[in-house]
Known about the structure:
Elements: H1 7-31, H2 36-66, H3 72-103, E1 116-123, E2 126-133, E3 136-138, H4 146-163, E4 173-176, H5 184-197, E5 203-206, H6 214-220, H7 246-260
Parallel strand pairs: 4-5
Antiparallel strand pairs: 1-2, 2-3
Helix pairs in contact: 1-2, 2-3, 5-6, 6-7
Amino acid sequence: MSILNNKEKLRPYIWAVPVFFLLQFGHSVSQYPESFFAVLFNNLWNVAYVIVLNFILFEYSIPFVLRKRKTIIYNILLGILLLFLYMMLYSYGSHGWRLLGIQLHIYTPLGTFKSLDILLESREKSLTLALEIKRTRRRASHDLSESQRFFIDIALRMAFAEFSSPGSGKAPLYIDTPEGSLDLAYEEQAGKMIAKFAKTHRVFMTANVNTSQLLRSIANHSRASGLSIQRLYQWTELSEVQAPQERKFDRTLNEIEKLAKPKKK
């Protein structure tokens, strides 16, 4: 009897579908609550790959390795070979499946993946860190653009805050006027990164009220965790240049606060 027609053997894999899906979907939707349907289809696409791969592994590959042979060394060698093969399939294969889904417009990429590595180098009897971006090593600050330096600086501080946070006691993050370091192309990504980190940590950030879109980006991605704006210009005496623009400051910040409010269903 064909294994596909054997309901008893198929039953565990059928039950595994909702289990795998709910585990992945719950984690993904908590990270991207604003992209519910994209997360839904992404996880369905991923689960299809994992379930089929698990089916082939447990119903064909493992019985094939355990089959009785003249000497057990053949089983060991086959086991090592198939172990390596399935490690590639579960790692690089899943990435290839993701790329196929993107090409077929089934899978929606929700994160930006760049070729960036941090390398430990030994130079002149000392150790130093070097960044490798797209196979090009950057060893000095002038090798990076101002926007790249901002992302690396913030990412390093976020990593320290996460590493030093014991259990539920999350370390805060302080950022001072970052909008001056970013051009328009990077503001959306920076806002998304800061808003995502603020879901689990307190973030205190000072910013100028200007034409930068960074605050709007943070507000757009903070509807789930919330956003509080303190108008520091109300705590001091405004200059002759600033005083006539106070209403404009208020109007701009009111608009940003509205962006952070959850959308009414």
